[in-house]
Write a structure and sequence with these properties.
single chain, alpha/beta, 211 residues, binds cobalamin, 2 domains, Methyltransferase, Methionine Synthase (B12-binding Domains), Chain A, domain 1, Rossmann fold, 5-stranded parallel sheet
C-alpha cells in the first residue's frame, strides 16, 4: 500500500500514534509534504466526511479523525510554511460564529503566512463584532480571512462581512472568504473582496489583494 494511502487510512481510523509514525516515515522517505497533505490527509477528510453524510460513521469518528489529521499536520507544518522575517502585511483570520471547523482555516493561515503575512488568528466561533474589534486593535491590518464550513453558518459569514463594512472598513481592508460550502457567487453576493477554494490559492490571492 502506498504511504499516503496508509496515512489516509490511519487518519480515518483516528489513530494518532500511527499517523505520527507514518508521516515521519513518509517525510524520511522523501515524499513531498504537499503530497502527504493532498493525497494522504485531505483525502481522508473527504472520505470520513462522505461516510458521515451517509450515516456510516458518527460525530466521535469525525472528531478522532480530525485529531489524527491535526497530529500529522503538526509534523509537516514546518516544511509547508516558509514564513519570512519581514512581513508584507498583517492578516486577521477566523472561523465564523457557530462553526468549530478549523483545519482548513489553519491551513489557510499557514499558507498566507508563508506568502509573507503576519497572522492574527481569532480561532473558531468568532462573532461578527470580534472581527471588527480585531481591526480596531490592528489598524495596520490589510486582510481579513473568514471561514465557514457549514451551510448553516454561511449567514454568519454574511453578518461578519456586513459588520466589517458597517464599521467603516469597506475598501480599507480586503475581506477574503472561503470554506467548503462557499462559492465565488456567494462571496460576490455578500460583498466579500475575494474568494479562494483552497489554502494555496488563498495565499496567492492575499498577495494579489495588497499589490
Ligand atoms: C473534521 C470535521 C469535523 C470536525 C472539525 C474539527 C476541527 N477542529 O476542524 C468536528 C468533528 C468537530 C465536526 C463537527 C461538525 N461537523 Co464536520 N466535518 C469535518 C470534515 C470531515 C472535514 C473538514 C476538514 O477539516 N476538511 C479539510 C480542510 C483542509 O478542508 P476545508 O475545511 O474545506 O478547508 C479548505 C477550503 O475550504 C478552503 N478554506 C477554508 N477556510 C477558508 C477561509 C478562507 C478565507 C479561504 C480563502 C479559504 C478557506 O481552504 C482550506 C484548505 O485548502 C467535513 C467533511 C469535508 N470533507 O469537509 C465535515 C463537515 C464539514 N461537517 C459537517 C457537519 C454536519 C458537522 C456537524 C454539524 C455534525 C453534528 N451533527 O454535530 C458538526 C458541527 C460543529 C460546529 N458547530 O462547527 C458537514 C457539513 C454539511 C453542511 N454542508 O453543512 C460536513 C461536510 C460532513 C458531511 N458530509 O456531512 N466536523
Amino acid at each position: 500500500m502506498h504511504k499516503c494511502e496508509e496515512i489516509s487510512n490511519a487518519i480515518i481510523k483516528g489513530k494518532v500514534k500511527d499517523v505520527k509514525e507514518l508521516v515521519n516515515t513518509a517525510m524520511e522517505d522523501g515524499i513531498p509534504p504537499r503530497d502527504i497533505l493532498n493525497n494522504g490527509m485531505l483525502s481522508a477528510m473527504d472520505i470520513i466526511g462522505e461516510d458521515f453524510a451517509k450515516g456510516l460513521v458518527f460525530l466521535p469518528d469525525m472528531m478522532y479523525a480530525s485529531s489524527a489529521m491535526k497530529a500529522g499536520l503538526e509534523i509537516i507544518k514546518p516544511s509547508l510554511s516558509q514564513a519570512g522575517v519581514n512581513p508584507i502585511g498583517r492578516a486577521v483570520i477566523g472561523t465564523v460564529k457557530g462553526d468549530q471547523h478549523d483545519i482548513g482555516k489553519n491551513l489557510v493561515a499557514l499558507m498566507v503566512e508563508s506568502a509573507g503575512f503576519e497572522i492574527i488568528d481569532l480561532g473558531v466561533d468568532v462573532p461578527a463584532e470580534r472581527f471588527v474589534t480585531a481591526l480596531e486593535e490592528n489598524p495596520d491590518c490589510k486582510i481579513i480571512g473568514a471561514s465557514a464550513l457549514l451551510t448553516t453558518t454561511m449567514d454568519a459569514l454574511k453578518e461578519a462581512v456586513a459588520a466589517i463594512h458597517d464599521a467603516g472598513y469597506k475598501g480599507k481592508v480586503k475581506i477574503m472568504v472561503g470554506g467548503a460550502p462557499i462559492t465565488q457567487e456567494f462571496a460576490d453576493q455578500i460583498g466579500a473582496d475575494a474568494y479562494a477554494t483552497d489554502a494555496g490559492s488563498a495565499a496567492v490571492k492575499a498577495a494579489e489583494l495588497i499589490s
